[in-house]
Structures are given as C-alpha cells and as structure tokens.
C-alpha cells in the first residue's frame, strides 16, 4: 500500500513539473513580448512591423501569434500592462515622498505613459472590439490611485481640496500630447506648473 502511494505521489510530482515549466516558459515569452512591444510602440508606433517586436523579444513570429493572434490583442495587452505598471508606481512613490511631492512624481510618470502611446488613440477609436474594455480599465486603475494621492496631499494641507482625479487626469493627458519639439521636457514643466496651481488656495499650514 505504501509503495503504491509513493508511486502515485512520485508520478503526480513528475507530471506536475513539465506543466509548471511550460507555464513558466509561456509567462517568460509573454513578458518578453509585452516589454518588447511597448518599447517598439513607443518609438515606431503601434503599426510597427512584427519582426521588430519578435527580434527585440528574442522569439519567433509563431510564438507571438500563439499568444496574440491579432495585432489588436497585443496592443490591448501592452496597454493594460503599461496601465498596471503606472498605477502600481503610486504606492512606492507615496512611501518615499511627502504627499505633494508624491503627487507630482506620479503625474510625471503618468504623463510619460500618455506621451509614449504613439498611435494608441487612433487604435482605440478604430472600432476593433479588442479595445472595447480599455477606456474603462484606464479609469478603474487610475482614478482610485490619483484620488488617493490627492486626498492625502489635501489632508496634509499641501494642495487645495476642490480638484477631482478625473479632471486632473484629463488635464495631464492633454499636456502630455507630443506637440512640442522638446517633448518630455515641456511636459514636465507644464505638469509642475499644474501642480503649483493646486497648491494655490491650500489652507495655511497649522490651521
């Protein structure tokens, strides 16, 4: 009885390992493709040739199409991945900085996110159903994050309390559109100016 049990246990363990390796390999391939695609999209736009993405990721075209059968599937996955990375950056920034400084740092991070999404706006309005859930995903991830940063800074008396996350996301997004020669430098200055405006009307310290 014990021998049968041991054999069953060994078989289960042996059978589990290849599956785990396959899942780990698939995860690495997916991560490499998402990272490579984000970099290529940032420099060449979302219509960049597939070979640029696969070459940067170090995988074949078959691997890409196995994970992302349509280009829109890849674009949507990159967008969600980048949204998550940007939203998740808020917590460590809040832990390292004073509330208003954390707010500025995250808005700068958000502005970079918007500014590097070349061609994504057109893709989102193309009518492809793969993008239908992305606007809501954007709101669901960013509104609570920015809302928390604003609330913390307002409670600390560092900014005024009458600005909502939706308006600030829209304003920062407009500033981040790549319409100027110095690109990110201009955006950083404008975001800093925007937050300076939030400081105006903040309650005096000690009140």
**Derived structural class:** mainly alpha
DSSP, total strands = 0
Into which percentage range does the β-strand content fall?
under 5%
Mean pLDDT: 82
Distance between the termini: 77 Å
Give the overall shape, derived from the CA principal axes. Answer: elongated
Main beta sheet, described?
Answer: none
Rg, Å, rounded: 22 Å
How helix-rich are the residues, as a percent range? over 70%
Given as residue ranges, the uncertain stretches (5+ residues, pLDDT < 50) are 1-16
Write up what this structure looks like:
This protein is mainly α and 207 residues long. It contains ten helices and no strands. Helix 4 packs antiparallel against helix 6 and helix 6 packs antiparallel against helix 10.
Features:
207 residues, mainly alpha, 10 helices, elongated, disordered N terminus
Strands, helices and their partners?
Elements: H1 2-44, H2 50-57, H3 61-67, H4 71-88, H5 90-96, H6 99-115, H7 120-124, H8 134-155, H9 165-175, H10 184-199
Summarize the structure.
The chain is an all-alpha fold and 207 residues long. It is 74% helix and 0% strand.
């Amino acid at each position: 009885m014990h021998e049968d049990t041991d054999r069953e246990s060994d078989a289960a363990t042996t059978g589990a390992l290849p599956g785990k390796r396959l899942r780990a390999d698939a995860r690495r391939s997916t991560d490499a493709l998402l990272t490579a695609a984000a970099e290529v999209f940032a420099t060449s736009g979302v219509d960049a040739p597939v070979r640029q993405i696969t070459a940067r990721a170090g995988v074949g075209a078959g691997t890409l199409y196995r994970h992302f059968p349509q280009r829109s599937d890849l674009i949507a996955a990159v967008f969600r991945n980048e949204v998550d990375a940007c939203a998740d950056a808020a917590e460590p920034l809040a832990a390292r900085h004073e509330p208003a400084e954390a707010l500025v740092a995250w808005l700068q991070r958000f502005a970079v996110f918007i500014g590097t999404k070349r061609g994504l706006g057109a893709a989102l309005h193309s009518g492809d159903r793969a993008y239908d859930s992305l606007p809501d995903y954007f709101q669901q991830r960013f509104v609570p994050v920015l809302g928390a940063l604003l609330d913390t800074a307002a409670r600390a008396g560092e900014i005024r309390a009458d600005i909502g996350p939706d308006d600030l996301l829209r304003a920062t997004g407009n500033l981040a559109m790549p319409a100027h020669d110095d690109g990110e430098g201009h955006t950083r200055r404008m975001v800093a100016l925007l937050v300076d405006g939030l400081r105006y009307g903040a309650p005096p310290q000690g009140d």
